[in-house]
Amino acid sequence: xxxxxxxxxxxxxxxxxxxxxxxxxxxxxxxxxxxxxxxxxxxxxxxxxxxxxxxxxxxxxxxxxxxxxxxxxxxxxxxxxxxxxxxxxxxxxxxxxxxxxxxxxxxxxxxxxxxxxxxxxxxxxxxxxxxxxxxxxxxxxxxxxxxxxxxxxxxxxxxxxxxxxxxxxxxxxxxxxxxxxxxxxxxxxxxxxxxxxxxxxxxxxxxxxxxxxxxxxxxxxxxxxxxxxxxxxxxxxxxxxxxxxxxxxxxxxxxxxxxxxxxxxxxxxxxxxxxxxxxxxxxxxxxxxxxxxxxxxxxxxxxxxxxxxxxxxxxxxxxxxxxxxxxxxxxxxxxxxxxxxxxxxxx
Length: 347
Ligand SMILES: NC(=O)c1ccc[n+]([C@@H]2O[C@H](COP(=O)([O-])OP(=O)(O)OC[C@H]3O[C@@H](n4cnc5c(N)ncnc54)[C@H](O)[C@@H]3O)[C@@H](O)[C@H]2O)c1
Known about the structure:
ornithine cyclodeaminase, domain 1; Rossmann fold; 2 domains; eight-stranded parallel sheet; seven-stranded mixed sheet; globular; binds nicotinamide-adenine-dinucleotide
């Protein structure tokens, strides 16, 4: 049997063929469709291995046909070593046989699926007509968030801030010239969030940071809080959560990893799938503050892996690799080892 290998180059070619807006839109549709059949999935909070510098996590999920897992890390100080903060890869397998069908890069794919999930949440929770977004944290994820909100939700003005001016320089360089998108560089988070309909925080710092405090909130804002995703790594002051209605992906995981970790165990939250199926309301009024406490859930990677595998297949991309031995007699695994190594047979 063969497993199909998808590299970052393959993902870039898929995006080149279809255009980023279309890929983001298809990702959002795929993730939404899977969240709407929430009950069909075997779910578990991700398994984390913590260290002084970061975390390495495994994220499994399955329905009756397909199983996926993602390996992902989060090391905020990696930039100093010339490495990305977040790196990922994953597998899509057949449940019926356990055969791994696809082995894929998931670093680029994670950035796209995270942005698509943010838009999925904001579509249900932000005020209709939200056109101005603050984007706090202008690192690796930021262009994806910016473009997903521009193309998917009609955001026309981005108010940018990062403690590292070079990160904002890079973001501005990439987004300058996007038709209909206005970029406003701000001197602080407080300045950036002023007048914003949506506030996206996508910072990386291994501590309980306070990017957004209650005094910065304005009535009706939607917060898309992406960077607080690990024990001891948060972005929102607890008072922000207390002042808002809070929406999560998978509650057992977000209680441990999200900004929600700062709140009492009985603090009420709503899982997004319930809003997407109509089982629970989204935004209730034009003045309430809503928070999507995003941490990233395995189901988003399951949806993304399936879509990328399909698009790669349609474009003839991906390389078959021998990840699993294929002995003519499935019981003769030792024979595979001997093939081409007659000295072993002698020994
Ligand atoms: N929720 C999810 O599904 C999901 C998915 C991917 C990444 N993430 C998280 O998103 C965050 C960003 O990831 P990335 O790959 O862009 O990381 P990155 O290191 O490339 O960028 C992070 C940026 O945040 C900036 N920053 C740090 N502290 C700040 C502060 N106080 N104010 C303003 N800016 C600040 C840094 O200067 C940097 O430019 C990480 O914390 C990562 O773990 C979450």
